[in-house]
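Write out a sequence, fold above all:
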Amino acid sequence: MDLVPAPEEPLKQPLKSVLGPPTAKVMAEHLGLHTVGDLLHHYPRRYEERGQLTHLADLPMDEHVTVVAQVADARLHTFASARAPRGKGQRLEVTITDGNGRLQLVFFGNGVHKPHKDLLPGTSAMFAGKVSLFNRRLQLAHPAYELLRGDTEEAVETWAGALIPIYPATAKLESWKIGKALQLVLPSAQDAIDPLPDSLRDGRGLVSLPEALLKIHRPHTKADIEDARSRLKWDEAFVLQVALARRRHADAQLPAVPRRPLPDGLLTAFDDRLPFTLTDGQQKVSKEIFDDLATDHPMHRLLQGEVGSGKTMVALRAMLATVDAGGQAAMLAPTEVLAQQHHRSVVEMMGELAEGGMLGGVEHATKVVVLTGSMGTAARRQALLDLVTGEAGIVIGTHALIEDKVQFHDLGLVVVDEQHRFGVEQRDALRGKGKQPPHLLVMTATPIPRTVAMTVFGDLETSVLDQLPAGRSPIASHVVPAADKPHFLARAWERVREEVENGHQAYVVCPRIGDEEDDPKKAAKKKAAEAAGDDAEKRPALAVLEVADHLAKGPLQGLRVEVLHGRMHPDDKDAVMRRFAAGETQVLVATTVIEVGVNVPNATAMVIMDADRFGVSQLHQLRGRVGRGSAAGLCLLVTEMPEASPARQRLNAVASTLDGFELSRIDLEQRREGDVLGQAQSGARTSLKVLAVIEDEEIIAEAREEATTLVATDPDLQALPGLRTALDALLDEEREQYLEKG
């Protein structure tokens, strides 16, 4: 039967037929807008009140801005130049003001005639252009402008509202042109079909969708904007949560083999050997996982825990429980280095329990194999054989595990380490290797605020490990302001020396590798930047190769310094890491390749150069590499940013707390969520436009409850054609696949 109700059609109309091909083409290419509905959902970024300007002091560099202001002064200058040697060059300088600040506009050459006529002192207009710096002053060069005279019917109509919507625009399409296009399609808003159930809308006092669209594009008061935004936020939160609730509902219908550990089998034997007791957090999370494993539909759980909170121990116990119950467990790691490291630490933790089938193996023991792309043929053949016969209960590997050749005897549990590095297809391919869908445990060391977890990983139940195991040391973090206080940097290198003299090791992290000169494009770009005399802010980020050289010849002379970065041959990387782990290298100068999972308990100090060029969460991840042993850790964040800059506030936040969840909130509030979904999903079309994942925590939590209740009673949404249509728009091809495979 035809599920798409007929009245929806006006919103499906291609923009080409309404706005004409040239405008429609720019909208499609630069803004991703194709239909009338797409344009109606292209909301204003903010609103200008007549004669009010983005405060001129707040204009961001290098961004396209739209300002509403009055011309204060306009002067035409003539000058001599290579192109106009006889003093015939013309430059028009116009100063505009919003009553608080002033901004310079400049026009050159033949482009001066029209603005010279139009922009007389006293004229009000909207100006759009890219903010640049000239002679230390902000200016707009050749801005587009639209006079606010209001002498024609259309202009009076368009500018009558006191609030002028400013749209996310591009150089090819100014905000007011988008505004004019919207005036043309706005009547179609009446045909928008409401995805929210009436009961939900009435219960929460939300305006209808057509009314919300009218109010967001043509508000008469600030209250109109508020009404519209509250309503549109609910749409975004609710439709997404319904998609995730349907996913969870469908998963709950799948069959799985329950895996319950034997009363005194492998897991008990393992627990008895542990030289320490599990933390309360580990016990609580293990119980959640064991309860899930015992059910007859697949577990889908996200295990979040700080670096070093003991996630691997929890995952290993789940794997042992699965082996106890006659199944096999596979752990998927993002890199070979990590797969090898997990394998070493699992075998170490299990001791003789990992020697199944060998002499010296004990009762209940199983075999733990590793499988990576670079293994030799014989070792690989043996590993594959152990998997297909069921001899190996546990396998740890990279995506080599997913290849067709790999067959399992009875795959019961898949553990994925560091979710964001794995495509959904890969998770899915591994799940397809079970006779029935295996249970799934996803581990991440990136702390994710609750609402982001509900939005991004909404198809997974979440467990959080938030206490560090006994014996982990605190990490002291300090900001080193290299520009304001150069002696602090000198002291930082002395501290590194002291750590090494005490028998410890140190990391120095840099944002760049430093051999980019071979790349002609990058070299040309660098030359251009130097020629333009860009400020210190634009200097290239510090590079591993240069810094290592400088340290070995200068402040850390006499210490054994080595480098590690992503462009090295894998064997060389492994060799460097092994020497560092063995304590032969005292200082490792590296890029963020060390961010994921390299465990060297003897490394106690980390110096992060140009720390302002890293994100908050990334700094926190990096810092987690030190203080992994019994000695206290030290992390120094080196920056040249001035005290008052937002970058310094970010670094101060990192230095002031070790709570990753707190930091991830700060990170999101500062970056906005960009498209949090985009990073974890295919991101097609769902950029959240009005929903802010952190601020709108309550809406997301409520939408999740409403969605779960709704889907439980009507999983196919028979009664809600409007919601079905909205879901189809959200789940276009790629995302449908994403959620299918989630």
